[in-house]
Amino acid sequence: MQRVLVTGASGFVGRSLCAALLESGYLVRTALRDATSMSPPGTHPVIVGNVAGDTNWQIALEGADYIIHLAARVHVLGSNAGDDNNLYLETNSRGTDALARAAARAGVRRFIFLSSVKVNGEQTQGRRFTAIDEPAPQDAYGRSKWLGEQAVLAVARSSQMGAVVVRPPLVYGPGVRANFLTLLRWVDRGWPLPFGAIENARSLVSIWNLTDLLVRALQHPEAVGRTWMVSDDLDLSTPDLIRMIGRAMERRVALIPVPAAVLRAAGMLTGRMTAVEKLTSSLVVDITQTRGLLDWNPPFSVEESIARTVRSYRESRGT
Questions:
Q1: Per residue in 77-103, pLDDT tens?
Q2: pLDDT tens track for 182-193
Q3: Is 141 an active-site residue?
Q4: What pTM was estimated for this model as a whole?
Q5: Contact by Cβ (8 Å): 316, 173
Q6: Active-site pick, 66, 88, 141, 172
Q7: Would you give the distance in Å from CA 6 to the centre of its chain?
Q8: Phi, psi angles (nearest 5°) of residue 170
């Protein structure tokens, strides 16, 4: 039976991925930060500490056929920009490089790196992001992911290990946080929302569709040596997303047509410009190559994925 090492297994994507791997018949080993981290049921945990340039991966890699590297530093609270930059680089760049090198020495066959659409940039205007675009990361996190991609692909070129890079847009599902969770709460409370005039388009990917692609990439011969975009294959405007959440919740949605410029001005005044930009701007990706070369289609529709997410949200609230 083939063994997969999963980093970041106790996180949002990791829990769903481990379940999908077990269902597909893999033995799953998880690399955990410490004894307090919860390894998903049915998996075999190994404590490795923080992902960094000096992490010892020897025990975790023993007998591993594949790696899916999810662990990343996404957001740091209470620190300055310089500290954030260093921490992103240590985990997402140097840590990824060290793991890739150790994996190649250990004879791992394939290394899948979960990157981010932020390597492409923050917004699209007139055309979709593709895997062959010139990278244009706008923040420390995006730059660190781009460096991590380059490290994995460089190690693969100089070894027998195959490398796969996947760049998802916003991922949602049970346990989702940030803007998506905020929208769930707003709709659930029945608040009027000022997004009726927004005419943007956003690509999203449900956790079920993302994990399905990651499992596909473990074995598909075309996956190696490439970067792949992924989405639910249906782009939504912010008003459409809110309406879809409302239908799933059986809540009446009131959308007030406030111009995007007014929302952005309010965002600047309240210090929430980043959140407002994501709710009013466009970011769409092209998955034509992913669908064609990997013979892959998202197994779950947007409607079904949002309904599942809403059910989980309500269960977590006891409603």
A1: 444 455 578 999 999 999 999 999 999
A2: 999 999 999 999
A3: yes
A4: 0.95
A5: no
A6: 141
A7: 14
A8: -60, 130
